[in-house]
Specification:
heterodimer; A: 288 residues; mainly alpha; two-stranded antiparallel ribbon; 11 helices; globular; B: 235 residues; alpha/beta; six-stranded mixed sheet; four-stranded antiparallel sheet; 9 helices; 10 strands; 33% helix
Chain lengths: 288, 235
Amino acid sequence: MLGWIDTIVQGILLGGLYSLYATGLSVIFGIMRLVNLAHGDLIVLPAFLMLALAGLGVPIVLALAIVVPLMFAAGYALQSAILNRALGRNILPPLLITFGLSIIVQNGLLETFSADTRFLNVGPLQGASLPLGGGIAVGVMPLICLAAAVAVIQLLNVVFYRTGVGRAFRATSDDVEIARLMGINDRSIYALTMGIALAVCAVAGFFLGARANFDPSIGPARLLYAFEAVIIGGLGSLWGTLAGGIVVGLAQAIGAHLDPEWQILSGHVAFLIVLVMRPRGLFPRAID
Amino acid sequence: MGVAILETRDLTAFYGDFQALFGITFDLNEGETVAIIGANGAGKSTFLKAIAGLLPRKPAAVRLDGRDIGALPAFEVVKLGVSLVPEGRRLFSSLSVEENLLVGAYGRRTSGPWSLTAIYKLFPMLRDRRHTPATALSGGQQQMVAIGRSLMSNPRILLCDELSLGLAPIVIRDIYAALADIKTGGTSVVLVEQDLVHAMSVADRAYCFMEGRVSLSGRPRDLSRDAIHAAYFGL
C-alpha cells in the first residue's frame, strides 16, 4: 500500500516536469496552430547553455536568469525571421522548417558538447528530500519543479486573461483576419508567442538538467511526452496541459512500479486510452 | 459636393487567379452615407475588404484624404480611421462581449466620441450581457457587438457589410436606428446591403455593382426603379 502511495506522489511530481515541457508547445499550438517539431530540442538546448555558463563559473540560478531572456529573444527572432514567412493555409512548410531545426540543434549540440551524458549541478538541493511521514519522502527539486510548473501556467493565464495584450493573443487565435481589422499585427503577436514558448522551454530545460541526465539526443522523446500532455489536457487550455502532464507522469510511475520495463510504454498507453475515450482531451476549450 | 475623404481609382481585386473587381472608381465625402447594392457575387464585400486592406491592391488604387493607402496592411488602415464591420459578424468566440469591444480599441489612434460607455448607451442591452461569451448572444445582439467593436477605434469611416443579413425585421429597424445615431456623430458610412429598401432609405448616394463593375450610381431619388433593376440583374 505504502509503495503505491509513494508511486502516485512521485508520478505527480514527474508530471510537473512534463507539464513544463508541454506548456510552450500548448501556447504555440493554441495561438498559431503551429506544431513545433523542434520543441524537445529547444528544451535540451537551454540546458546545455546553462551547463556552459556553469562551466564558466556562473552560479546556476544566475545562468537560468540569463538563459530565459536569451531564449525569449531567440524565439522572437526565429518566428519573425523564418517561421512567419512560412505561415499560410498550408501547414506543411512550417512543419518541415521545425523538423529541420530539430536536426540542426541536435547536431550542433553533438558537435559542441559531444554525446556525453550531463547533468546540471544545483548544489545541496539536488539530493535533498522532505520526509512526509509514514516512510514517504519527496525530493525538494521535483517539488520545486511542480511548483514552477504551476507558477508558470498561472503567470501565463494572468497574461492571457487579465491584460490587453493577452486579449489580443486570444483574439488572434480566434480569428486572425478580424484581429488584423482591429489593428492587431498578427506577425508580431506570433513572434511574441514563440518568444514566450522558448522562455518556458528554458525553465523546462533547467529542471530537466537538475532532475535527470541529458545528452544531445533526448529532445525528440521530450517532444513526445509534451505532445501527449497537450492532447490529453485538451487543446487551448493551459490548466488542462498541467493535468495532461500529470496523467503522463502518473502513468509512467505506475507502469514502472509494476515492471520497470513498462515505464515509457504505460505513458503512451494512457495517452491512447484518453484519445479513444475523449478525443478532444480532458479539458477542451477550443471550439474547432 | 464636399471633398472626397475616401476614393478608389480603378480598383481591381483578385482571389488567386479569379478576378473579383474590374476597376472600381468610387468616392465618399465627409459625413456622407453611401450604399453599395447589387446581387450576390457582384463584388460588394470584396470591395470593402480591398479598402480595409484584407486583399492585395495597387498602392494608388485606394486614397484617404488624397494619400495613397493601397500598400498598407489591414492593421495599419484601421489606425488611419477606416473600420470594417465584417459580414456575418465574426465575433471573437472565446472572448466576452466587453472583451470583443476592448479588442476593437486596439487600433485606436485618434480621440473621438466612442468608448465602452458610449457603446453601452447606443446598445443598452449589451451592458447587462457584457460578461457573456459573445457567441452566446442572439444574432441581432451579436451584430450590435460587431458594430460596437468597429466603432471602438473611433473611425472616421465605417464600412458596414450586410448589417441586416439573417436578422428579424424588428431587429434590423433597431440596427438602422443606431446607424442614424452613428452618422449624427459625424462618421461617414459605406453600407453594403442586399436589402434595397433599407439601403436606399438611409443613403445619400448609391452605387450598384454587377459582376465586379459599377453598373449604376447616383442619388436614390434620381434612380428609377427600372434603372436599379436593370443595373442589379443586368436585364
